[in-house]
Design brief:
heterodimer; A: alpha+beta; Arc Repressor Mutant, subunit A; 2 domains; 40% helix; elongated; B: alpha/beta; Glutaredoxin; Rossmann fold; Ubiquitin-like (UB roll); 5 domains; 5-stranded mixed beta sheet
Chain lengths: 164, 591
């Protein structure tokens, strides 16, 4: 198994205190991983080992689950998670161009994180707001009817906020 | 004028994304200032997504004025002139464009009308009456017969008769049976289930409880897509409120029937829409389908008899129970009864959530309900059923939307995503898009689905890149047929549909890519170029400044020129040119 802990980030993810809310069976694997990711933003190797131990499920099976579902992440994400919708409606209305613009502006590829740790860029299958296509979700905020200019404005607003 | 009683703000995910929250806050503030006896309400999807954010002002006699594209700065006028002055603000009203004229609301009966977080509002609309009737007046078999008699078929895509399905699980021995609501809406371009769960969650919960009673299941699960946090929040509240009201839990309505419901959030896997994969996921495993039989009705979750229905299917159930069977069967066709909810998206004017009687011709949905093609495009095709469905060309737009007729075209009704395509959509690129999706979402169990779709994707990518060879088309179709018959579950069996339908109906477009190295829709980047027409260029240099790679410079005269070697074909110059001086060319147009 690869070392999934980013070197710059201190691993504080070993806390098992909240596990007791879940039954100690394999049925709890996914909800546990979801709770951990909610809290830390990703799943560290320590987390996976803890879930394996707590649910009496082989670590290989936990790793299988963590890599099967697209929701789970094994590396530390940037401060803001940019998820560019690649659903059908967005695709036919220019989502490819929008993704290209995010890549240009952030200087990273899909699934990459900017050097300053501010943004992680991902694609998402469908945000379900097709009438606002093309759309992007940054953290919990959705932006619709995007153009290349709008992408620049949105990123600039996050950067301004950061500079304050 | 009749007294204003209620103001509704559409606050489903799409409304919020369009900026409805600040509109709601502004209304709250303005209304508090004038102390008006008007109820301000958060509602689910009103349906007219193309006009979001939406505000409905409702009068005592049921009259309604709808404001669209509402901005915070409009609120002052709306409150002053309409709420206080009684005069609707004409220039802000949504014009009547016939959007609702041909719609029939069964599933969406309350959506956009009631506060989804208020159980009292749901009850005031006849909510939970159907459950009460089932539990206190009807046997399990009578409930199954009623649903079978209505002709309701699974709205998740396959169209299996719901009552018959319930009958299978009812026959199996208990006591531990499971009733699962499949809300893992994974089709890109579909948002019906999300809208129903966000707009009227109690209806789905009631439908579930009725079904669970019919098959004798004391345990229920909502399996909801994790990307739908608002839907999850509203279901949670619905379950909690219904439990407090004694409508879910022990001995409901004093009967012997007890029902507990849990929520499981999916973790992002399209294949989990398949029943056996969904079950594996709830059990905490990788969501991989298994061989059937045994069917879930015999051996499902934890090996117990299990019934799984889609959100929209269950949302039909309380309505059917509360009405005469004929009220439902008078909508639809001989074999497809009732209505179907569609998420209309793509290149049409009225994108949104609609519900129409089964059997409505495709063209009526596109032009009467959807308002036709936007930006003066030409109607080319509709894509139905997402990655499992197919493209139906405009020439077949008389085809009625029912399960059998749509299947004959090679597409499927699917869960309800309906994407309208125009002449600027490349069908080869679209087929490639769906194959890319499928290839990433294949769970990897079956060789043909895992590797076959990968080879198909490679072929399509090659064609889009202008490197296709004449044998590619036959190879693609041959492999597509093999993937269909050699895959275990619905994902693989239907994965080639987007390719097969586009090859069937748009073969000349594939041939243009392969033989002429041209993309007629001007989409495939390797096959197009941008050129500035000197006669139309005014030398304003807007394109030069906008070009992200500095490919545009002064030509030999009073016009700008694009260096084809540097150009990345992003289309920015085409978008910004105020004089339409930039042409997109492909194939023979380029020489």
């Amino acid at each position: 198994m690869p070392d999934t802990t980013s070197q710059n980030v201190e691993d504080k993810t070993g806390d098992m205190g909240s596990f007791h809310a879940f039954a100690a069976t394999s049925a709890s694997v996914i909800p546990l991983l979801q709770q951990i990711q909610d809290k830390y933003g990703y799943l560290s190797e320590t987390n996976l080992r803890n879930v394996s131990e707590y649910t009496h499920t082989p670590l290989s099976a936990i790793y299988g689950v963590a890599t099967f579902y697209s929701q789970f992440r094994l590396t530390h994400p940037g401060k803001h998670l940019v998820r560019v919708c690649q659903g059908t409606a967005c695709h036919v209305l220019g989502a490819v161009e929008i993704m290209e613009r995010f890549k240009e502006q952030l200087g990273i590829d899909e699934d990459g994180t900017t050097a300053d740790g501010l943004f992680t860029l991902e694609s998402v299958r469908c945000l379900g707001c097709c009438s606002l296509a093309p759309a992007v979700m940054i953290d919990d905020e959705t932006y619709g009817r995007l153009t290349r200019d709008k992408v620049d404005d949105i990123l600039a607003s996050y950067r301004r906020e950061e500079a304050k | 004028m009749s007294r204003i009683t209620e103001i509704r703000v559409g606050l489903a995910t799409c409304g919020i994304a369009a900026g409805a929250e600040p509109v709601y806050s502004a209304l709250e503030k303005e209304l508090a200032a004038i102390d008006a006896p008007v109820k301000l309400k958060r509602v689910g999807c009103i349906g007219m997504c193309y006009n979001e954010p939406l505000v409905d002002i409702v009068t005592e006699d049921g009259g309604k004025s709808t404001y669209g594209h509402v901005r915070v700065e409009d609120i002052g006028r709306i409150v002053k002139e309409h709420v206080v002055g009684g005069q609707p603000v004409e220039d802000l009203l949504v014009p009547d464009d016939g959007f609702f004229d041909r719609q029939v609301r069964v599933v969406l009966e309350n959506c956009g009308i009631i506060d989804p977080e208020s159980i009292d509002e749901y009850i005031s609309k006849g909510g939970y009456e159907a459950l009460k009737m089932a539990l206190t007046e009807m046997s399990q078999q009578q409930v199954i017969d009623k649903i079978t008699g209505s002709g309701l078929r699974g709205r998740g895509g396959a169209g299996f008769p719901t009552g018959v399905k319930w009958g299978f699980a009812a026959r199996e021995p208990g006591p531990d049976k499971y009733f699962i609501c499949n809300a893992d809406e994974g089709d890109p371009g579909a948002f019906m289930d999300r809208s129903v769960l966000e707009g009227d969650p109690h209806r789905v919960l009631e439908g579930m409880a009725i079904g669970a009673y019919a098959i004798g299941a004391p345990h229920g699960y909502f399996y909801v897509r994790a990307e739908y946090p608002l839907a999850i929040k509203r279901i949670k509240k619905a379950i909690a409120d219904a439990t407090d009201a004694g409508l879910i839990g022990e001995n409901i309505f004093g009967s012997n029937f007890s029902f507990e419901v849990k929520i499981k959030a999916g973790a992002g896997a399209f294949v989990c829409g398949e029943e056996t994969a969904l079950i594996a996921s709830i059990e905490g495993k990788r969501g991989m389908p298994r061989k059937r039989p045994p069917y879930p009705a015999v051996s499902g979750l934890w090996g117990e008899p299990t019934n799984i229905n889609n959100v929209e299917t269950l949302a039909n159930v309380p309505w059917i129970m509360r009405h005469e069977t004929e009220d439902f069967t008078r909508y639809g066709t001989e074999k497809s009864k009732g209505t179907k909810v569609f998420a209309l998206a793509g290149k049409l004017k009225h994108t949104g959530l609609v519900e129409v009687p089964m059997g409505m011709p495709i063209k009526d949905i596109v032009f009467d309900v959807g308002g036709g093609i936007r930006d003066e495009g030409t109607f080319k095709a509709v894509q139905m059923g997402g990655p499992s469905g197919g493209c139906i060309p405009a020439s077949l737009s008389d085809v009625p939307v029912d399960y059998e007729s749509i299947n004959k075209t090679g597409a499927i009704v699917g869960s309800g995503g309906l994407i309208v395509l125009d002449d600027k959509t490349c069908m080869v690129d679209l087929a490639r898009f769906f194959l890319d999706f499928i290839q990433k979402e294949s769970c990897g169990k079956c060789t043909f689905c895992r590797i076959g779709t990968k080879r198909m994707l490679e072929t399509l990518t090659r064609i889009c890149d202008g490197e296709g060879v004449s044998e590619d088309l036959d190879r693609l179709v041959d492999l597509a047929k093999k993937v269909k018959v050699n895959s275990l579950c619905g994902l693989g069996q239907t994965a080639p549909n987007p390719v097969l339908t586009t090859v069937k109906y748009f073969r000349e477009e594939y041939e243009a890519h392969i033989v002429d190295k041209a993309c007629p829709a001007h989409v495939c980047k390797a096959l197009i170029s941008y050129k500035i027409e000197p006669d139309r260029c005014k030398d304003c240099k807007i394109c030069t400044r906008a070009c992200p790679v500095g490919a545009i410079s002064q030509g030999e005269g009073k016009f700008q020129e694009i260096d084809q070697g540097t150009c990345i074909k992003c289309g920015t110059c085409y978008e910004v040119c105020p004089f339409g001086a930039i042409d997109v060319l492909s194939g023979v147009e380029e020489s």
